[in-house]
Amino acid sequence: MEQLRLAIIGGDGIGPEVTSEARKVLRAALDGTVDLVETEFALGATHYLETGDILTDETIDAIAEHDAILLGAVGGDPRDPRLAGGIIERGLLLRLRFAFDHYVNLRPTALHPAVTSPLRDPGEVDFVVVREGTEGPYVGNGGSLRTGTPHEIANETSVNTAFGVERVVRYAFDLAETRSKRLTLVHKTNVLVHAGGLWRRITDAVAAEHPDVTVDYLHVDAATIFLVDRPSRFDVIVTDNLFGDILTDLAGAIAGGIGLAASGNINPDGTFPSMFEPVHGSAPDIAGTGTADPTAAILSAALLAEHLGHADAARRIRDAVDQDVAQRPAPTTTSETGDRIVALVAAA
Ligand SMILES: NC(=O)c1ccc[n+]([C@@H]2O[C@H](COP(=O)([O-])OP(=O)(O)OC[C@H]3O[C@@H](n4cnc5c(N)ncnc54)[C@H](O)[C@@H]3O)[C@@H](O)[C@H]2O)c1
Ligand SMILES: CC(C)[C@H](C(=O)O)[C@@H](O)C(=O)O
Ligand SMILES: [Mg+2]
């Protein structure tokens, strides 16, 4: 039987709560077809406060030995001065994305049947944001002069390389070819002229190789209007790291809630393990209450299964989620939702 080695990073807050439900569902979906070997890595703000370690080189090497990573969420109490400066987000989450060259951050959005969108008339909501994952303003290229004085100067430089932009744009076009063949570049070329110009030129050049894909462009501010007014206009959105971050929280909200939004940090070359995680964070406001919705983590596990070649297991997970959200009791708990979805997967 095929063996799949999964690195599990529950993380902080609701991260471990939703990840354990996703693991249950994944085990049920792969049962009998795969020998699933799960290795837990204690990482996150809590781990850092206990040990002083955020992510050692040895741990990166150990995680690299796995076929994929399932991550919950990381980030501790925002008021804790020991966690200031996003040290966990940067030193753990972004470090993993960069170390494993997750240059595609894939964030699909679909309005599941029976889920209520806050939009009055959402129409068809079925699009994928292809968010660049290793560049942009996320690279940590910045600094502050005269810090803490009235004359402070703080810089955060967005890094965009032709190599980095081209590979993610190519991925987005290839994805559009498998969908409705419509691609929207989202940027802010009217202000961010250097980075925007590069994205635009590369998108135009790759578009010439895909004459059957309809390509358009929106400034990111206008894109937020259309996401609310007419999300059906979108099929594949390709955008930079920061715009993609912001748009996908909005996308989650219009598709019925951030508790349903899944993502994959993909290394398309397969050199490193890809990492699957909900779009949401550690939700300290509800951690420990047992009310977190594990659906985003479960759908992230479906993306993981699909990425590893188990399309049938992925389909069964998604079908079970669709059935569950259509008849979900309220109120319900994190583990009850996981249990119901496990039962539906097992019955399929
Ligand atoms: N990938 C990640 O690990 C990741 C992603 C985003 C934020 N974060 C971190 O998480 C911490 C909290 O960030 P935030 O408050 O800005 O965003 P968040 O996504 O954690 O929470 C935003 C709101 O959504 C709710 N929410 C989130 N997930 C939910 C779920 N599954 N079910 C029900 N409600 C849910 C929360 O209760 C909160 O009201 C910060 O430290 C942030 O840096 C981590
Ligand atoms: C926690 C943070 C670094 C992260 C990001 O900005 O990418 C998160 O918001 C996300 O969407 O995964
Ligand atoms: Mg985000």
From TrEMBL:
Residues the entry annotates as binding substrate: R97, R107, R131, D221
Domain Isopropylmalate dehydrogenase-like, chain residue ranges per copy: 5-341
Cofactor field: Mn(2+); Mg(2+)
Cofactor: how and how many bound: Binds 1 Mg(2+) or Mn(2+) ion per subunit.
EC annotation from Swiss-Prot or TrEMBL: 1.1.1.85
Pfam families named in the record: Iso_dh
Protein name (Swiss-Prot/TrEMBL): 3-isopropylmalate dehydrogenase
Protein source organism: Agrococcus versicolor
